Amino acid sequence: MIPMKRDPCKTSPFAQSLRQAQILVLKIPKVFLRLKSSPSLTLNKIERSAKVSKPRASYLVCAFIVLGLAGASHSYVLPAKQILDFMIEQFGSTRTFVVLQKTVIYDPALEGGMREVDEILYYRYPDRFRCEVSTPGGKQVRVVGPEGAIFVTNGKIIAETENPFDHFKDLLLYRQAELLLKRLSELDVNLDVVSLGRYKYSIAYVIGAKYPDESVPQVWIEKNTFRPIRYVLRGGGPNNADLEEIEYTDYMPLDKGRWYPARILFFQNGRLARMYVLKTFRVNPELPDQLFDIPYLKTVYQPIASAEPPPSPESELDEVKKTIRDFKRTFE
User: Fold this and answer.
1) Across the 332 residues of the chain, what is the mean pLDDT of every consecutive 10-residue run?
2) 43: domain range?
3) For the CA atoms of 296, 301, 305, 308, what is the dihedral angle to 10 degrees?
4) Number of domains in the chain
């Protein structure tokens, strides 16, 4: 297991600036107290103190300006939609994207405590996703799109719901702010709450929670780069009770202006449960519509509980398999 260390620091730079300004203001009354308690002031001393009071007054005004600026900077953060707009903008205008990755599954029940498999991820922006993985138990295909979701194992449809581990793609797939806002709302992220927080060495916008509250679903967007770095799912949605959070790290450039996380970490029940490691990728390949067409795939694959023959001829399933094989050859 890879040990993960979290930064316990909870004091933001804004709070530090505010505290310094408060200390500055507290020094001012002491100066006037000394002037007031001076014995038998003469006219000359009064004149001198009057002259001194001018810079002291300026000092006081400056202190209150600093205090006001610190308080203003501490209280204002960008709204959720604007943050997500900036995040989507920095991802670029890619049409399609394919990733070949190594997936490391950590489970004490497995031999050696872990297993490695290769997965292929297909993104068709702004809202379609497909994942293929070959395991010792067979082949899995998972597809998510506007029509819903489908989970196929060994040619049989075993579910029409989304796998909780596929939520990592939410912040990387949806290239329209309205789509992403809708998705986050479905997972109980409160889009009306935005704060600033610190995670490890990064200052980030926290959408969905008041930092340092981590008990509710939230999205962390790095403040300088507007790249997602953390996705807390704890308590969000009906199927995410065990999957606590996802971390995006080690961003690498795909081409000019486009980046993708080279590692994606999944934490479940307080431990590292899964890790995705980027191996290779292709930007803007041609992808057949059939790969993402959920209504069509439901006619090709047979539900696991059904004894009926598939409504579509076997040749259609063969055609889908051939399309996938031909595309995979481009990675070889």
Assistant:
1) 44 47 47 46 44 49 43 69 96 93 95 95 98 89 97 95 94 96 96 97 97 96 97 70 87 89 94 97 96 96 68 48 51 52
2) 13-76
3) 90
4) 2
